[in-house]
Structures are given as C-alpha cells and as structure tokens.
Amino acid sequence: MAPQYAPSLRSRLPPLLLFLQTGFIVIYAFYTDIEGYVKERDGNTFSNFYPEFQDVNVMVILGFGFLWTFLVRYGFSGAGFNLLVAVVATQCAVILNGIDSWYYRGKIRINLRSLVDAEMCAASALISIGAVLGKTNPVQLVLMALLEVSGFVLNEWLLHTLLKVRPLKDMRLHIFGAFFGLMLTWILHRDGSKQQFEKEKFGRKTGLFSMLGSIFLWMFWPSFNSVLVDAHTPGRKLDAVCSTYLALAVSAVTAAALSVLSSPKGKVNLIHMHSCILAGGVAVGVSISGVHQPWEAMAIGFTAAVVSTIGFRYLKNHMLRAFQCHDTCAILSTHGLPGLLGWLAQLLLQIRDCDNHTMAIRFAVVHICTVLFTISLSVAMGIITGLLLKWNIWRPSQDRKCFDDQAFWEDVPHLKICNFQGL
C-alpha cells in the first residue's frame, strides 16, 4: 500500500539550501564588491535605473508567483516555491555573470544592472517551472534552477565566443526556458498524466489570484523590455515601452476574441486570458531591435496572440498524446511559440531595413545559427537535468500526491475544511 503522505524532505531540502547559502555567503565575502561609483554617461545611475530594477523585481516575484497559483490545491507551493527558486537562481546568476569581471579585475562587481541581469536569468528558470509545476518537489526545483541558470549563462558566453554576437536576453530567456522545460517534463513523464492527474484542477479563487499575476506581468512588461535596449541610443527606451504596450494591448483583445471563438460554449476561457494576453509582450520583446513603427508592434502582438491561443487550445493535449510531454502551464504556447515568432519577425524586419545584400545574408546566417544553437543547448541541458532529477534519491512525490500542498506545507486551510466536512 502506498504511503498516505509524500516522503519527508527533512534529510534533503534543509542540507541543500543551507549548503548553497553558506557557499554563496563565502563567495560573496571574498570575491564580490558593490560598485558604488557609476559613470553618468553609462546611464546606470541609481535614480535612473532603480525604477527599472524595481519593475523587473515585481515581475519575477509577484508576477510569476501569483501566476503559478491557478491550481486549486497547489497555491501555496506555486507562490512559495517561485520565491525560493527566484532568490537562489538570482544569487547564483550574479556569480556566474561576474566570472569575467573576477578574471580580469579580481572582484565580481555588483550593481543594479548586474542584479537585473541576474533576475532575467532567474526568469528563464521560472518559465521552465511552468512545465513541471505540481509534479516536482522543492529539492528538484532548486537543482533545476541552478543547472538552467548555468546553461543560460553558458549559452551567452558561447554565442559571444563562437559567433561574436550578444543577442538580447529576452530572446534567449523565453526560447531557452521554454525548450528546457519541455525536455525536462518529457524526461520526468509520469503515468498519471495520461488521464490527467486527480488534483490538477482549477478553481474560482485560485484563478483570480493567477489573473492578478498575469496583470502584474502585463503592466510591467514594457519596463522589462526597455531594460534590454541600448540606453546610449536616443529614444530607443521610449520606442521599446510604446511598442511593447501596443503589442500587449492588441494581444489582449485578440486573445479574448479567439478564446470565445474556440470555445464550444462561446465563452471566454480564463486560462487563455492568464497567459495568451502576454504573448505580444514576449514576441515584441524578442524582436524589439527591429521594430520601428507602431503598426509593426501591433501586427506582431496580433499574430502572437493568435498563435498562443490556438496553441493553448489544441497543442497541449497533442503534445501529451503524441510525445508524452505533460506541459502543466503550456509554456510552449505562452513563451516558446511567441518567442520563435518574435525571432522570425526580427529576422524579416532587419533584412528589410538592410540596404547591403551581403550584410543581410550575413545577418540572416548569424541570426539563424544563434536560435539553433540556443535551442540545441537548451534541449541538451533539459535532458541532462531531467535524467539527474529522475533519481529516486530526491524523493519525488507519488502520482496521487502531485499538485497537492499537503505534501510540503503545514496547516493547509482547504484540507482542514475537507476533514471537517468528512466528520
């Protein structure tokens, strides 16, 4: 007979977290330094950059945290584990991103820019969590975040070393995070996902909290994309903010319309609104360097919403049946497909604006190699991570304990209500 409760993580989670945090403190004590002086010409003064840092921080903690609370019995874990993974991944990313600075200067320089870059690396891990949400324990999530952040930073270093390019983080974090998560959930496939897990259900209150997370992400996405553009080019940040807002507005309207059209009852699907309204922000963020006109951003937002909504409605079930890939939050439709669409839009827009055919061909080759290399590395890292997390040493939960806060949290309110009603 299977045990009534999930295996205890007392011998796994506390030692892992304490070991990691002690190691981070030691590294920060000897090899880091806060950069107090920032040149005015860099545009990264405290007063100029702190609002952008604050917006990105809200997206990572509040936006994704509330977004993962849509499951009825997994709200505590969705929000709580998001915070845990985000802070661990950010601390790790600061160190990994600063290796070059440590090599040449002897110290890892920490400033608001480095924190924002680290949180964007963490955002890639949070995207991947959506694919395995509810089917993994916090030990597996922390290990997954460390490996993915390492792969994400490695991808940037290899692209800069081999192809001599530095693509936008927005392109890599959506595409890398989506395909990493898909490979992870494919390797960690459970038999219980064939007929849908017993507790994989949505609720009215949890859906409202999840919609709140989507609204946070929707509101702060223009600032998120503006951080990525070059501050030295006059007007580019304003262009990024305006283009992102227009793309998000169009995607929200389009997602609502298509949700009604694709519904057998002709009603709006709240799950579609959670994620598909963000598709425009994802796509235009990837293609932001090539977008110069408002109609271009709006067209990208419209197309992204169409692709995301249709993918959300039909692709998730086909992925499960055909490839045994149970994507809990449909991150392929939310981040992967809009990210690839934005990549294609950037390629076409840049070629259109290029007068020199030789330069256009060279740009196309490098651009294609960049996305293929990113996908290949994310797939390889996802497979490696999945094989590692599949070991029973991490004490994964039984199928009937997936999507249940009871496995990890004390005094869960809905369990008390259920027990009281059963008396």
TrEMBL record:
Boundaries of every Ammonium transporter AmtB-like domain copy: 40-391
Chief location: membrane
Pfam families associated with the record: Ammonium_transp
Gene Ontology CC: plasma membrane
Span of the signal peptide: none
A GO biological-process term: ammonium homeostasis
Compartment(s) of residence: Membrane
Xref: SUPFAM superfamilies: Ammonium transporter
Residue ranges of the TM segments: 12-31, 56-76, 83-103, 115-134, 171-188, 208-224, 244-261, 273-291, 297-315, 361-389
Matches recorded under InterPro entries: Ammonium/urea_transptr, NH4_transpt_AmtB-like_dom, RhesusRHD
Example of a GO MF term: ammonium channel activity
PANTHER family noted in UniProt: AMMONIUM TRANSPORTER, RH BLOOD GROUP, D ANTIGEN
Family according to the record: Belongs to the ammonium transporter (TC 2.A.49) family. Rh subfamily.
Purpose: Functions as an ammonia transporter. May play a role in the elimination of ammonia in the gill.
Record protein name field: Rh blood group, D antigen
Organism annotation: Sparus aurata (Gilthead sea bream)
